[in-house]
């Protein structure tokens, strides 16, 4: 086969790929996003898996490596309206000897979605515990880490199931009555602005992106439209989740159980977090005196995206300090 024939085949492949992407963008955006997420997981060394809990509920998760006597296990819990693939970028910073599991919370990603389900933090802690048993994590202790809503969940989980854990890491967790309102709460509660965490339009999505990160990374409009189109059908579900999270009995549940956390605890926060105010750290320090706290400069709410290497480095240093 000559060089011209090879170039012709490559060019034809590129054209077919572009046509496929264009058609998917307009007719089936969820397929395009699914392919992008799977590619991201594959490059990071993850294998996509599922596990059933009962007869009608299925967790979707991804796993890298295998647990052993020498390999520590880390379970990663994403935030509101996100999914397990948000950890792909940060996973590069963890040693290959670390066994990593990242799970889609109920209704998020590919895990079973129930619009009439209970998504309060206590209910999500119960579901997380079911997942832990379903994949056999309860047979040996593991590290647990979560961000934002996930940080709230893992903190409450640690207060109830410390016998399962080596440590817990909370990244800008919700569930704290912060001394100061965040920019997000100022916008929504005081100014009455639209909740941009549930974007209806590409413009809403770009606003959310600007608020979540500190150093703005330009997103093309077509990317914002793609992700908005994929998320929009589930906005009713996300509103239900927010209502459940804001339940008066559970909104600040993490703050109420901090003193019950007995495992080593690491708290990480972005200095310029606009979604959950960094002053929450003061409350945590007062209630949980033995914790390690690090505030990351040049970082907003999305630690795993903005400062993945620094975040992973602090976690590994923390795990080493526990061992020693």
Q: Could you describe the 3D structure shown?
A:
- It contains 13 helices and 8 strands.
- It is α/β, with parallel strands linked by helices and 324 residues long.
- Helices cover 44% and strands 15% of the residues.
- It has a single domain (45-323), classed as Rossmann fold.
- It has an 8-stranded mixed beta sheet with strand order 1-2-4-3-5-6-7-8.
- The protein has helices at residues 3-27, 29-43, 88-91, 121-134, 149-160, 183-190, 202-212, 221-231, 235-245, 253-257, 280-287, 303-306, 308-323; strands at 47-53, 57-64, 73-77, 99-103, 142-147, 165-171, 265-270, 292-296.
- It is a single-pass type II membrane protein.
- It holds the Pfam family Abhydrolase_1.
- One of its GO terms (cellular component) is lysosomal membrane.
């Amino acid at each position: 086969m000559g060089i011209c024939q090879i170039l012709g085949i490559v060019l034809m492949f590129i054209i077919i790929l572009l046509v496929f992407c264009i058609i998917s963008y307009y007719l089936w955006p969820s397929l395009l996003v699914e392919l992008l997420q799977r590619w991201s997981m594959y490059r990071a060394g993850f294998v996509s898996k599922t596990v059933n809990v009962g007869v009608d509920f299925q967790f979707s998760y991804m796993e890298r490596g295998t647990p052993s006597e020498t390999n520590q296990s880390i379970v990663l819990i994403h935030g509101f309206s996100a999914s397990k693939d948000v950890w792909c970028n940060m996973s590069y910073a963890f040693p290959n000897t670390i066994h990593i599991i990242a799970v889609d919370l109920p209704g998020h990603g590919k895990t079973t979605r129930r619009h009439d389900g209970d998504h309060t933090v206590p209910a999500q802690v119960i579901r997380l515990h079911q997942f832990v048993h379903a994949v056999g994590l309860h047979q040996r202790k593991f590290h647990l880490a979560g961000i934002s809503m996930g940080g709230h969940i893992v903190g409450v989980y640690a207060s109830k199931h410390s016998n399962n854990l080596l440590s817990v890491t909370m990244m800008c967790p919700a569930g704290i009555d912060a001394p100061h309102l965040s920019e997000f709460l100022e916008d929504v509660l005081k100014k009455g602005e639209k909740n941009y965490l549930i974007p209806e339009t590409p413009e809403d999505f770009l606003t959310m992106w600007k608020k979540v990160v500190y150093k703005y990374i330009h997103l093309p409009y077509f990317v914002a439209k793609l992700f908005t189109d994929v998320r929009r059908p589930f906005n009713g579900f996300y509103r239900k989740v927010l209502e459940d999270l804001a339940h008066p009995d559970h909104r600040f549940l993490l703050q109420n159980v901090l003193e019950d956390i007995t495992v080593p605890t690491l708290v990480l926060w972005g200095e310029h977090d606009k979604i959950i105010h960094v002053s929450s750290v003061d409350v945590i320090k007062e209630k949980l005196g033995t914790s390690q706290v690090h505030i990351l400069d040049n970082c907003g709410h999305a630690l795993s995206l903005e400062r993945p290497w620094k975040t992973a480095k602090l976690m590994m240093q923390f795990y080493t300090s526990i061992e020693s």
